[in-house]
Amino acid sequence: MDVQRSVLDRFDTSGDYLGRLGEAVAAARTAGLPVIYVVVGFRPGHPEVSPRNTSFGAVAGSGRFATGDPGAEIHPDVAPRPEDVVVTKRRVSAFAGSDLDLVLRSGGIEHLVLTGIATSGVVLSTVRQAADLDFRLTVLDDACLNADPEVHRVLTEKVFPRQADVLSVADWTKALAGSGG
Question: Per the database record, which ranges form the Isochorismatase-like domain (predicted)?
């Protein structure tokens, strides 16, 4: 979720974040699991952004994350394939202002494996909403990034385990390979 050029530019990815994320995507594809990308995006002029919205108010009128903005593109190291679904959201949660719930339910998907930037943003908001919608959840902790490492640690070690299994990419891919998909 939100693995877009402009988002990644704000984070230190020197620890091979994109490599781990690529491993998770490859493992999902090998197991025959659908890969769904979630991006933040707006129409030209940002009509979806209220001036009262502190998260997105700064981008209103800037052209950022609007149709055609190169910074809104998914990073090419983990780019979607034609068979993958790309969902555009209008707020922090992957469900807010998107058709994600419709896509998941139409595909009979009941278990979500979540990754993304930022742990305290899209990942937290999506975990909470997905749990309330009765999805089974796994969060890949080392395929999530946050500007504050301590916030990331608290969320992945203390908050998320109340609603999700929290695993590393390596542990998840190993379990996935052992389960036969």
Answer: 2-171
- CATH (domain of 31): 3.40.50.850
Q: Is 153 helix (H, G, I), strand (E, B) or coil?
A: helix
Cα–Cα separations (whole angstroms), residue 141 to 71, 96, 131, 154, 171: 25, 22, 17, 11, 11
pTM of the complete model: 0.94
Question: Which residues form the domain of 24?
Answer: 5-179
How many Cβ atoms sit within 10 Å of the Cβ of residue 162? Answer: 8
Q: What pLDDT digit, counting tens, does each position of 21-56 carry?
A: 999 999 999 999 999 999 999 999 899 999 899 888
Segment holding 175, helix H or strand E: helix 169-179
User: Is the preceding peptide bond at 118 cis, omega within 30 degrees of 0?
Assistant: yes
Amino acid, res. 169: V
Integer angstrom CA distances of residue 73 from 70, 87, 125, 159? 6, 12, 22, 30
Q: Measured between alpha carbons, how far is 6 from 79 in angstroms, rounded to an integer?
A: 15
